[in-house]
Design a protein that fits this description.
Length: 734
């Protein structure tokens, strides 16, 4: 009997252990990272390829596996890989200098972690701007014993022929070139011809630039590394699970399907109750699993991913035969969006407080820009209040059902442990002109780490007080998106927060230790400072970060960088120009006016200034002016002060302030007591490419001119100067 009992016990143990060993297998991958040149329609650009692929190869696992990934960095510069959405030990998270050691040139780094979840995720570089040039890939984690189903990875991304470092620098200097390329300038000429002059006038009265939907112009958009892909194996009646991943640097995509409805079954890797929609927008770094059906044989059906700004798209075709194209999304109505923006903004540049009435994408502030929904002219557009009152649940306009977060419901309860909550309030803030992005008006480097205790519940109320969308991502944790489903509110790790929205998320501090990044996943917003670091109290030393004090300086260095820009006019009457170095709070600049002879002379002004207020309308500065002209300057200024010196230098202090209509007023005094006030406006958009400018000051000096933009860096220009008279030539802009 004893022997039989032992045999039965052994059988029981083996029946438990053997499946466990099988489900907890070790899955290894080697990723070889190289610089490469990619060719898109004749354009060669440097990119990063892994195992010869752009994007990186898809990694497949089963929940319970132990992932072992060897990353071989064959480049001449360091890199990193972050496992987006995965729950793992802090030192495996992959943020260089914060959680994980950078992967040095010509070295191999080993990641090893157990997979505690299933779903659709992705991985990407967290080093500088490498994500923009190809360093990203998909992760698919199946459930144990999950039935085999038809599935496709749909990894969306954006591609620019321009160096991403030049993109970033240009954004900090508010280049108009991307708007010109996208035909979205919204000039005074366009406003006048379309009957929207009052809208444009109000827009600039409130010190706002033109309506912008996406910051960067991209030459092409990709699905799994190509603009168009087809999978022919599917037949009539087949159901296909599409694992949609937005691996772009800064693009949102509208997803539609030519064969009808899509059933959304998961978001950010977590299951949701199926909900049928006609379209959904996938924010930068979000993932959605959707089920679609192949209606008939002999046809190929298009899954169309269109960039939010409607400048391009990428397609996945399912099935073989005559192509059934999805209906293209029409051009946005920018002036309608500008009108709504005017209604929402105060003179101080802040969003009007709408509280929780604006939440969970239930009222898309850009809805009035969508011709497929709004149809008619601007007079037919709903008011802000009307839009909000009709924007409940499905956001259904006509026959179009658009997904929003209020529609997402978890199939299981997601309530947090019964422990106290700590509530944090985050206001998303920024300055579009100078491309500074902050939380509570502070960048990552200007903020202390947020200390949290293991086991406590954290509630974050987030208000977006900027005119841009922000997909906020939390590393190493899932949060509840609090909606009307209460205990069944969905779990996500990315929340797309629209302008004027207020949303609430909650998470339990369930990890053991470490620093965890919370940041906007638009790459250029993150690099400009929009983020925070959650840090577990009493965390042990991180073996990956042997010198934490020096390492955190490197993390903070991202948003402290200075960017160079300037404009040089080379015209027949001389040269006017300026150059500057600026970062989040400081600007070092010089400007000059150089004539062709001693009578015209020259004048230079060098300054160092600091931006004072939240919207950065106010700059206080100190500097040095140097002036020379044969015969001296004018005897008296408008204040009755005299200065007859022909060779004159002076220490100055002063301030600049941006007035309505984007007029920059300047008031300064030098060490002799000489006062100068000035009013200037640059870049008045008359047409898509024509810009006017003007200046007048109390020295009875004035100038006005025009530029016609030929390329991003070169304009044909002309101007009249009270001292140097008329001139024409070219202006170089950098």
């Amino acid at each position: 009997m004893k022997k039989i009992s032992k045999i039965l016990f052994s059988i029981f143990v083996l029946s438990v252990i053997i499946p466990t060993i099988k489900s907890q297998s070790i899955k290894e991958y080697n990723l070889y990272v190289n610089d490469t040149i990619v060719n898109y329609t004749g354009k060669n650009r440097k990119a990063i390829a892994v195992n010869g692929q752009i994007p990186m190869p898809t990694l497949y696992f089963t929940e319970g596996d132990t992932a072992v990934v060897y990353v071989h960095n064959n480049m001449m510069h360091e890199t990193s890989i972050h496992w987006h959405g995965l729950l793992l030990p802090n030192e495996q998270d992959g943020v260089s200098y914060l959680t994980t050691a950078p992967i040095e040139p010509m070295s191999t780094h080993t990641f090893k972690f157990a997979l505690r979840q299933s779903g659709t995720y992705w991985y990407h570089s967290h080093t500088m701007l490498q994500e923009q040039i190809g360093m990203y890939g998909a992760i698919v984690i199946h459930k144990p014993n999950e039935p085999v189903v038809n599935e496709e990875v749909v990894l969306l991304s954006d591609w620019s022929d321009e160096n991403p470092h030049e993109i970033e620098r240009s954004l900090h200097y508010a280049t108009d070139w991307y708007a010109i390329k996208k035909n979205t300038v919204q000039s005074y000429g366009e406003a006048l011809l379309s009957g929207n002059f009052k809208t444009k006038f109000t827009n600039e009265w409130k010190r706002m630039n033109a309506m912008d939907v996406s910051d960067v112009y991209y030459e092409r958009f990709l699905v799994n590394g190509v603009n168009e892909q087809q999978t022919k194996k599917y037949k009539a009646g087949d159901k296909v699970r599409l694992r949609v991943i937005n691996g772009s640097a800064s693009t949102y995509f509208w997803v539609t399907y030519s064969a009808g409805k899509m059933s959304v079954v998961a978001s950010d890797g977590m299951d949701v109750e199926p909900v049928e929609v006609d379209r959904f927008i996938v924010g930068t770094s979000e993932t959605y699993d959707v089920m679609v059906t192949i209606p008939a044989d002999g046809k190929a059906y298009e899954l169309l991913a269109t960039s939010e700004d409607r400048t391009g798209s990428a397609s996945l075709w399912l099935g073989d035969g005559t192509r059934q194209a999805a209906k293209p999304l029409p051009r946005l109505k920018y002036f309608e969006g500008m009108k709504m923006m005017n209604d929402m903004m105060t003179m101080g540049g802040n969003m009007k407080d709408m509280g929780m009435n604006m939440s969970l994408q239930q009222m898309d502030m850009n809805n009035v820009m969508y011709p497929e929904i709004t149809g008619g002219e601007m007079s037919d557009m709903p008011s802000m209040q009307d839009s909000m009152s009709h924007a409940h649940h499905s956001e259904k306009q006509g026959d179009i059902v658009t997904l929003n977060y209020a529609m997402l419901k978890s199939p299981v309860k997601t309530t947090l442990p019964d422990t106290p909550f700590r509530t944090l309030y985050f206001e998303l803030t920024g300055n579009m002109n100078r491309y500074v992005w902050t939380i509570n008006n502070k960048t990552v480097s200007e903020s202390d780490k947020i200390l949290i205790k293991k086991g406590e519940n954290i509630r974050i109320v987030i208000n977006n007080n900027s005119m841009m969308r922000h997909p906020m991502h939390l590393h190493g944790h899932f949060f509840r998106v609090v909606n009307e489903h209460g205990e069944y509110s969905p779990l996500k790790n990315v929340l797309d927060i629209m302008p004027m929205e207020t949303d609430t998320i909650e998470f339990n501090a369930a990890e053991e230790y470490g620093d965890w990044y919370f940041h906007c996943h638009i790459l250029y917003h993150m690099m400009a400072g929009m983020g925070r670091i959650f840090s577990y109290e009493d965390s042990p030393p991180n073996p990956q970060i042997p010198n934490p004090d020096e390492s955190i300086k490197k993390v903070y260095g991202d948003d402290r960088r200075f960017f160079l820009g300037g404009q040089v006019g080379l015209e027949s009457n001389g040269s006017d120009g300026n150059m500057s170095l600026m970062n989040t709070r400081w600007i070092i600049s010089t400007e000059w006016r150089i004539g062709l002879n001693k009578t015209h002379g020259f004048e230079t002004e060098a300054r160092i200034g600091r931006f004072i207020d939240q919207k950065q309308f106010l700059v206080a500065y100190a500097g040095w002016d140097w002036f020379y002209r044969e015969g001296g300057r004018r005897e008296k200024n408008l204040f009755g002060q005299s200065s007859n010196q022909k060779n004159w230098g002076a220490f100055t202090v002063g301030m600049q302030y941006t007035l309505p209509f984007l007029l920059v007023t300047q008031l300064q005094v030098d060490h002799t007591g000489y006062v100068r006030a000035q009013l200037r406006r640059d870049d008045i958009p008359v047409t898509r490419r024509l810009r006017l400018w003007g200046m007048i000051n109390t020295n009875i000096e004035y100038a006005f001119g025009a530029r016609y933009i030929l390329t991003k860096y070169v304009s044909a220009s002309t101007h009249y100067d009270s001292d140097m008279k008329f001139g024409a030539g070219i202006t170089l802009t950098y």
